[in-house]
């Protein structure tokens, strides 16, 4: 944890001021109910002209709020479906447009800021974690370096910021060489994030203090806007239990409302909540009007209830997590529309919101708020400093990244699959079962969480490797978490319960369909509700019905053995055995089952029959 109060004056760097002040706020916060010191208030250059009065200034000023979310370390332009967006045309048709890449994101943001003297940039979590090899191989230091160059002012944490644990997240904020990997470049020490990461609803159980700063205040020539950053309360359900041991995650609405009052007591009446939780618009087109026919009518999901519960003191919500694009107006508890935005993922979009600030009331004129998502197009000039950054890190990664590990005969969709069972999910499950059988020949089935599959395997060459060649870097992008492939004993009854948990309990509204290895088949009837969606009589393992009383040796990664994604039944497995790395399982399988002359044919994804 940071130390005592940190001075916010007499420093040459306004960006350093922002981080130090935010860390000071985190250090001095007691319980969630404690008031925070005014030292948390600072801004670009720490310029505050309140003492001069505003008689000679116009009453209102437009503040440009730029935002994005869920970058996941995608510094290079993402490929496959991860690098496209659906764009709605004037005639109602849609087309796909390519987008993303930090070189273009930097150019887009810098162009947008021109002529905007009051501009602040924020991001709603998952900026790191689940990253491609270029960033993930170096524990996401390249992404933080890029975000510093982007002039990101403040960010909220997401669940993936906790992938490598609390101490690593604090290192990401404060800097320093990695505790085991060390410094990656001679003569260079990782400096950490120039921007404060906010985690208002994440506290240390023993001390009840926030693990990072809960809020931050941007100030520019007398204009003040407060930012409260939170992640979803359900983070413990979707990250490795070891990484968040000793932390408590609090309710989103209660936390934001509490700190909104804290900020208002400090004279900050303009407030933005940066929330790593999101919704699902009725259309995936980034320019879909989700306020048709009425405010917020075109969006559903957790963010709707959160937005309706957050105090009217909060003027705008910047959200993330669901990787969806939207700029909606969801009514606040008083029934007044309030902007709620999300910029998809992987740096493909950025959101521009105009907040009209009234100098007399120090508040936002909500009726004047305008917001829209903009494509990070690739037909614009690339930012030279980002090109240099990518080239520098690529040079370090190249010996590892470019190594061929297998050959495929066509695209193998994973993250971009439009079906509940994906061809890449089948491939990964088969690979994990094969690796597990080298440790225990009794292993009979492997289950893979869909969220652990981060990309597609694309047949077309991304670099110079040639079409159909799968490189280590591409494999890493698919499975970047470094999970282990474990074995446990589960009864047939437990396996049925686990399959039912895909579509019930916390997964009722947004099912999480486990990917299954060859030999396990069953039917999902999505016309039914909850656990009944799993047709239990259809479940077969190698052609035979499951015996509820029999014990089966099951292969799971460590995320699932910890009960992740709401699969509490899988956490009850007996006789655990920790196996090898999940990425190695995939690369070994590709190496053993494909060649240039006989590339691997994409799996058919026909193990789960879905009725709709």
Automatic annotation (TrEMBL):
Residues 79-97 have a biased composition (Polar residues). Pfam families: 5_nucleotid_C, Metallophos. Residues 43-52 have a biased composition (Basic and acidic residues). Residues 68-325 form the Calcineurin-like phosphoesterase domain. Keywords: Hydrolase, Nucleotide-binding, Signal. The keyword Transmembrane does not apply. Residues 1-40 form the signal peptide. GO terms for molecular function: 5'-nucleotidase activity; nucleotide binding; UDP-sugar diphosphatase activity. One of its GO terms (biological process) is nucleotide catabolic process. One of its GO terms (cellular component) is outer membrane-bounded periplasmic space. It comes from the Bacteria. SUPFAM superfamilies: 5'-nucleotidase (syn. UDP-sugar hydrolase), C-terminal domain, Metallo-dependent phosphatases. InterPro entries: 5'-Nucleotdase_C, 5'-Nucleotdase_C_sf, 5_nucleotidase/apyrase, Calcineurin-like_PHP, Metallo-depent_PP-like. Residues 407-570 form the 5'-Nucleotidase C-terminal domain. The keyword Nucleotide-binding applies. Residues 38-58, 71-99 are annotated as: Disordered. Gene3D superfamilies: 3.60.21.10, 5'-Nucleotidase, C-terminal domain (3.90.780.10). Belongs to the 5'-nucleotidase family. This is 5'-nucleotidase. It comes from Streptomyces uncialis.
């Amino acid at each position: 944890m940071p130390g005592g109060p940190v001075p916010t004056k007499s420093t040459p760097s306004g960006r350093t001021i922002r981080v130090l002040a935010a860390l000071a706020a985190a250090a001095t916060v007691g319980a969630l109910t404690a008031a925070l010191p005014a030292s948390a208030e600072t801004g670009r250059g720490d310029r505050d002209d309140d003492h001069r009065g505003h008689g000679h200034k116009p009453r209102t000023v437009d503040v440009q709020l730029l935002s994005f979310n869920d970058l996941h370390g995608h510094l290079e332009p993402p490929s496959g479906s991860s690098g496209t967006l659906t764009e709605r045309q004037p005639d109602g048709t849609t087309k796909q447009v390519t987008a993303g890449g930090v070189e273009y994101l930097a150019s887009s943001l810098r162009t947008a800021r021109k002529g905007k003297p009051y501009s602040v940039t924020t991001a709603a979590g998952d900026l790191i974690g689940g990253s491609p090899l270029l960033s993930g191989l170096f524990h996401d230091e390249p992404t933080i370096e890029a975000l510093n160059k982007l002039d990101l002012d403040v960010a909220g944490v997401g669940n993936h910021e906790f992938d490598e644990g609390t101490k690593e997240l604090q290192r990401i904020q404060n800097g320093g060489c990695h505790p085991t990997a060390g410094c990656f470049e001679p003569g260079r020490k990782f400096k950490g994030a120039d921007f404060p990461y906010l985690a208002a609803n994440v506290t240390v159980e023993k001390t009840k203090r926030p693990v990072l700063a809960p809020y931050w205040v941007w100030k520019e020539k007398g204009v003040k806007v407060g930012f409260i950053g939170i992640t979803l309360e359900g983070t413990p359900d979707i990250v490795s239990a070891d990484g968040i041991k000793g932390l408590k995650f609090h309710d989103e609405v209660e936390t934001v409302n509490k700190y909104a009052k804290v900020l208002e007591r400090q004279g900050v009446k303009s407030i933005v909540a940066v929330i790593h939780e999101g919704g699902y618009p009725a259309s995936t087109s980034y320019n879909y009007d989700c306020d048709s026919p009425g405010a917020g009518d075109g969006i559903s999901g957790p963010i709707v209830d959160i937005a309706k519960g957050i105090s009217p003191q909060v003027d705008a919500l910047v959200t993330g997590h669901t990787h969806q694009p939207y700029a909606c107006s969801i009514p606040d508890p008083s029934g007044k529309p309030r902007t709620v935005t999300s910029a998809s993922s992987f740096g493909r979009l950025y959101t521009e919101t105009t907040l009209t600030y009234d100098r007399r009331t120090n508040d936002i004129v909500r009726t004047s708020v305008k917001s829209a998502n903009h494509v990070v197009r690739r037909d614009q000039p690339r930012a030279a400093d980002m090109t240099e950054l990518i080239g520098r890190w690529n040079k370090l990664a190249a010996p590892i990244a470019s190594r061929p590990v297998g050959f495929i005969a066509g695209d193998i969709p994973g993250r971009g699959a439009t079906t509940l069972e994906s061809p890449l999910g089948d491939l990964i499950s088969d690979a994990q079962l094969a690796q597990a059988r080298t440790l225990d020949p009794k292993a009979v089935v492997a289950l893979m969480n869909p969220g652990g599959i981060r990309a597609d395997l694309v047949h077309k060459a991304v670099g110079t490797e040639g079409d159909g060649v799968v490189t280590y870097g591409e494999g890493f992008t698919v499975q970047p978490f470094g999970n282990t492939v474990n074995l446990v004993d589960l009864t047939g009854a437990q396996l049925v319960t686990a399959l039912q948990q895909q579509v019930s309990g916390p997964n009722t509204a947004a099912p999480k369909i486990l990917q299954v290895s060859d030999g396990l088949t069953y039917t999902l009837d999505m016309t039914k509700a909850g656990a009944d969606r799993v047709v239990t009589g259809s479940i077969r393992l190698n052609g035979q019905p499951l015996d509820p009383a029999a014990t089966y040796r099951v292969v799971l990664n460590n995320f699932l053995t910890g009960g992740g994604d709401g699969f509490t039944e899988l956490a009850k497995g007996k006789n655990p055995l920790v196996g090898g790395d999940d990425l190695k399982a995939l690369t070994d399988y590709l190496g053993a089952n494909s060649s240039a002359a006989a590339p691997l044919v994409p799996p058919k994804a026909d193990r789960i029959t879905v009725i709709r």
